[in-house]
Amino acid sequence: MDKAEHSGKLFIISGPSGAGKGTICKRLIEETKVQLSVSMTTRGPRPGEIDGVSYYFTTKEEFRKEIENGGFLEYAEVYGNFYGTPKEKVLEKLEQGIDVVLEIDIQGALNVKTVYPEGIFIFILPPSMAELRKRITGRGSETQEAIDLRLSQTLKEVSYIDKYDYCVVNGELEEAVARVKAIVVAEHSRVSRNIYKLIEKYKEEV
Amino acid sequence: MDKAEHSGKLFIISGPSGAGKGTICKRLIEETKVQLSVSMTTRGPRPGEIDGVSYYFTTKEEFRKEIENGGFLEYAEVYGNFYGTPKEKVLEKLEQGIDVVLEIDIQGALNVKTVYPEGIFIFILPPSMAELRKRITGRGSETQEAIDLRLSQTLKEVSYIDKYDYCVVNGELEEAVARVKAIVVAEHSRVSRNIYKLIEKYKEEV
Q: How far is CA B5 from CA B8, B38, B165, B200, in A?
């Protein structure tokens, strides 16, 4: 039995950096009706960024107030700025029957799980550590030492996989995207409270 | 966390008569690698039927012996003949990594669930009782009274839906087939013991 009461579902796409969660998430938004959650941030808008589309822009004071009110599914501080997923905004969409996807790191996903366990948690894995090393090295932005640290960090993070519902190995992108799409479809066929409405309708008909 | 240890998965497609489970099942076998389970029966082979392909043909004595040995995932007696799903044959395929589908009625599915709870149970529903009535009436083989009895039977059966993992409403066949296919793909992405093998491999690599 499914726990969710909302007709829209929340998909959390997570996994180590370099596994390709960003690309998969982008494809999901482009090719299905699933919508990306808009984050709230305290950093200033960059040229072209639109409030409520790129981010919800706010002040540190307001952000801290929201944290105290339990207003975030998850949040983090990065280089002195706060970033968070506003709970209310996400729930509004779910209530309207809209699927929402969050792309976040593993710590963030674990936080979401405590606040919204009805979410569907998908872990994106690289096909091998050798491949992950290749991908990170390819970016050319990190030292060998930093890469080694990153990989050992990844090994630790991967141990949280048993908190997730699904795991998709991103070896071949098209296949990984197809799998994530299949998960979205399948999750809408889960036996849930919604189906009881249909059965009630049956009873009236007979 | 998934319970299954076999790399192949057992899908049980079930639902009331007239919901279209037979058609969906046929399409699944034709269009994916999922294989249909071959039943064992005590009725004699008809012209063209091949032992081990159409059915496993056997005697009533042997069949009863198998029942006593717990050799069936489910079985039933129909018009004096026995029909059953041989457990060993199904498990052999699952161990080889082959997905197997069973198309059975609701009572049969509930029996399979007690023997093999790791199975993935899919309930096929008609879009409405009016539509189900139309489909059964269309076959022209039953009296009005028999149809009424069938529909009230269906209502009772539908109450077992909470024993199932998925529920697919067969209003538009193509959509229903796509949903069942998505379930097969998604179930192979469930976090299961198999994924820990990959993680062990990661550890060796770092």
A: 9, 22, 18, 17
Neighbours of B7 (CB within 10 A): 15
Beta-strand runs (E) in B108-200: 120-125, 166-169
| Residue in the structure block whose two tokens are 């009424």 | B148
pTM for this entry: 0.90
- A to B CB pairs, distance under 8 Å: 108
Chain-chain contact of A168 with B190 (C-beta, under 8 angstroms): no
ipTM of the complex: 0.88
Answer whether B201 sits within 8 Å of A162, measured CB to CB: no
Whether residue B166 and residue A186 make contact (CB cut-off 8 A), yes or no, is yes
CA B31 to chain CA centroid, Å, is 16
pLDDT tens digits along A96-115: 999 999 999 999 999 999 99
- Answer positive or negative: Cα dihedral of B13, B14, B19, B21: positive
Eight-state DSSP code of residue B80: T
CB within 8 Å: A125 and B182: no
Cβ contacts (< 8 Å) between B190 and chain A: which residues? 165-167
